[in-house]
Amino acid sequence: MTLVQGLDTDVVIGVTDTLTERSAIVRDEAVMWQPLLRSAVIKEHDYSVVASYDQMSSEQKAAHLKKDGLNVVRTLVNLTVSISNEKILSHVLVMVNDILMDKENIRFFEEVEAEEGEGEKSLSSWEPFLNLLNRTDVFIVNMSSLILAKVISTGDIRLDGKNLTWFVNWQTGQLLQSNVYLHTILASQQIMLRVPEYRQPFFESTCLDKMLNILSTRISFQLQYQIVFCLWLLSFRASYCAKLLAFIKPTAEILRQAVKEKVIRI
What we know:
- By secondary structure, the chain is mainly α.
- The relative contact order is 0.10.
- It has 16 helices and 4 strands.
């Protein structure tokens, strides 16, 4: 099994997880940063930070983040705004997600604001990832969704009402059995539903109806686990439990057929 980058060990994704497989490919692809500097796509400071950081080993990166993590995160968040090239942007997002593998690093995102442009207001650290959900590249979109879920749930940053509703509705729209990134969408929801104030927007959306439809079909044990995990988190609010009764039949059927201990346990 392979962990989704930066999640708890109980949020596990199978070896066929599209995001994890694609991330491994993107991580190994070399990026030429110098042309971006020459064409003024990125600033000299951001170039010096990312060009050096990108060449480090995993161990070196971890040590460097302890010394200069805020500078690295600020640079990477800036690059998500200034870079439009999909290949390079994907590489930047993988670096961001790798940093979030260590939950302690969320503190850097809490201190960062992104530079949107000359004379324009700064963006909060989560805003570039919300904006990237409008891109057409499915890897960029789903990686941004996972990063955004972590940034607004792991530490003290919280998404406000209007943006939260939009993000929850966007996620709900991705809850399709045919979506090859369904594992990632559910992983994002597992992260967010651990935050009590995020549960109501999910409950009030069509999220539960979508989950029930998926759970009632033949899906992998991992998807079963992720959906039931989300239901379990919602069940912490007693007023939601009446609606959750619709899930008794499919979850009972899963329990009857399940062979994986973690599925039975959840």
